[in-house]
């Protein structure tokens, strides 16, 4: 997101922020300041644009993070804990984003001891900037970290290869759901749709399993670019067509797979649209629309965990009710337990729910009657 804001000289600046937060009301340019001063400004909706040493700016940011860290609230029901946790995260992120830097033309960061950030920013934004803009330091650091991960890639044994994921695209880092896609029977399917392809990992896996014509869709243009690059690297670009579209492409397929966002909540940034889906809107639209796109004897595979149930964000019969409403019946259910570290992290306020999480692949078909 980009907004225009004015400094005290009336000069207008582009303020870039990946989250849906409102831009600051004011900006002040400072060579140095302590965490207290930046925090005080932040609470008054004023962003500090750091003009001094880059490493010092990082130290101030770390000090602010430490001050904002609050012990997880205990007691109360799990649903409230989830909403409180999300609210605290949003408030902390808004405050942290009030320490920013100026990015000059050509993605240059001209602070003393600043690293070269050009490649990291070119990874995030499609076109190079011809005007300076302001960017929260915390986000810049996130972009730098994501760029390193993007270059390195994630080794996926199910693919016998690597998936490279830039900032802003869902990462299959906790990839136990891929084991389910790798195990479910392919039944001679020749055509498939991968709905909400993200990095393209599921489409690539289906291609590896021998499906010759796959169409992958996503509404996030970054995901489309990322998936295209992954298909080329993995040598399956001939088998997969990419379409930037809402849910289904035109036509029908033997197999339609979807790994939707798993939690019914409001996203606060573009990347969160891969995790949170208000009122399960995408999930319901997928289930209600999938039959129209299935060939005779075709299957829909839905990948989803039950975390939302453990967080009391939906009831236990929600999914089966949705299947019934969409006239779908279950052929088989495959499941696995997450092996990711967060599931065992007692400092995570949602650890209780995460420790009970199971990931499912539902094989569905249109009801015969
Ligand atoms: C949980 S991620 C799954 C990504 C990938 N399929 C995987 O399994 O790693 C959900 C994806 O669905 C995409 N998405 C969300 N709403 C969508 C919609 N209405 N139509 C198509 N894609 C959508 C998101 O951008 C995101 O890439």
Descriptive key words:
single chain, 369 residues, alpha/beta, Rossmann fold, 2 domains, 7-stranded mixed β-sheet, 6-stranded mixed β-sheet, 23% strand, globular, binds S-adenosylmethionine
Largest sheet: 7 strands, mixed
**Poorly predicted residue ranges:** none
Order of helices and strands: EEEHEHHEHEHEEHEHEHEEHEHHEHE
Q: In which order are the strands of the major sheet placed?
A: 11-10-9-12-13-15-14
CATH architecture of the largest domain: 3-Layer(aba) Sandwich
CATH superfamily of the largest domain: Vaccinia Virus protein VP39
- What fraction, in percent, of the residue positions are helical? 25-40%
Mean pLDDT: 93
Kindly estimate the percentage of residues that lie in beta strands according to DSSP. 15-25%
Task: Tell me what you see in this structure.
The chain is globular and about 70 Å long. Helix 1 crosses helix 2 and helix 4 packs across helix 5 (137-152). 33% of the residues lie in helices and 23% in strands. The chain has a 7-stranded mixed beta sheet with strand order 11-10-9-12-13-15-14, with helices on both faces. With 369 residues, the chain is α/β, with parallel strands linked by helices. The protein has 12 helices and 15 strands. The chain has 2 domains: 2-149, no CATH class; 153-366, Rossmann fold (3-Layer(aba) Sandwich), CATH 3.40.50. It has helices spanning 35-43, 54-68, 78-96, 118-124, 137-152, 176-183, 201-208, 221-234, 281-290, 307-310, 318-325, 351-354; strands at residues 2-6, 12-16, 26-30, 46-50, 99-103, 133-136, 154-156, 161-163, 191-195, 213-218, 240-244, 253-258, 294-305, 328-336, 359-366. Residues 170, 172, 195-199, 201-202, 217-220, 223, 246-247, 259-261, 273-274, 282 line the site of S-adenosylmethionine. Pfam families: MTS. Residues 188-310 form the Methyltransferase small domain. This is Class I SAM-dependent methyltransferase. It comes from Neisseria lisongii.
């Amino acid at each position: 997101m980009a907004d225009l804001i004015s400094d005290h000289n009336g000069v207008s600046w582009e303020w870039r922020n990946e989250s849906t937060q409102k831009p600051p009301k004011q900006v002040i340019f400072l060579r140095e300041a302590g965490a207290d001063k930046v925090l005080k400004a932040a609470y008054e909706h004023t962003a500090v644009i750091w003009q001094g040493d880059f490493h010092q700016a990082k130290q101030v940011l770390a000090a602010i993070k430490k001050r904002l860290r609050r012990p997880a609230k205990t007691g109360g029901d799990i649903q409230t804990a989830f909403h409180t946790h999300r609210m605290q995260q949003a408030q902390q992120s808004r405050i942290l984003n009030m320490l920013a830097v100026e990015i000059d033309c050509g993605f240059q960061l001209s602070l003393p001891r600043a690293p070269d950030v050009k490649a990291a920013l070119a990874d995030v934004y499609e076109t190079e900037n011809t005007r300076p803009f302001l960017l929260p330091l915390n986000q810049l650091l996130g972009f730098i970290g994501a760029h390193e991960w993007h270059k390195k890639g994630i080794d996926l044994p199910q693919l016998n290869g690597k998936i490279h994921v830039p900032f802003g695209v869902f990462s299959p880092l906790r990839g136990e759901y891929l084991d389910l896609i790798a195990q479910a029977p392919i039944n001679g399917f020749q055509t498939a749709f991968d709905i909400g392809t993200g990095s393209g990992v599921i489409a690539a896996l289906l291609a590896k399993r021998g499906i010759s014509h796959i169409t992958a869709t996503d509404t996030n243009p970054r995901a489309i670019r990322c998936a295209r690059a992954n298909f080329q690297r993995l040598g399956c670009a001939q088998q997969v067509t990419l379409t930037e579209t809402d849910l289904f492409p035109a036509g029908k397929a033997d197999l339609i797979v979807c790994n939707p966002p798993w939690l019914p909540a409001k996203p606060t940034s573009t990347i969160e649209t891969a995790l949170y889906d208000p009122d399960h809107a995408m999930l319901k639209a997928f289930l209600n629309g999938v039959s129209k796109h299935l060939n005779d004897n075709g299957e829909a595979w839905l990948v989803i965990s039950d975390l939302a149930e453990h967080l009391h964000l939906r009831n236990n019969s929600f999914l089966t009710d949705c299947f019934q409403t969409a006239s779908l019946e279950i052929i088989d259910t495959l499941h696995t337990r997450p092996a990711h570290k967060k599931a065992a992290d007692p400092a995570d306020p949602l650890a209780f729910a995460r420790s009970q999480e199971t990931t499912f692949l539902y094989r569905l078909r249109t009801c015969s009657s």
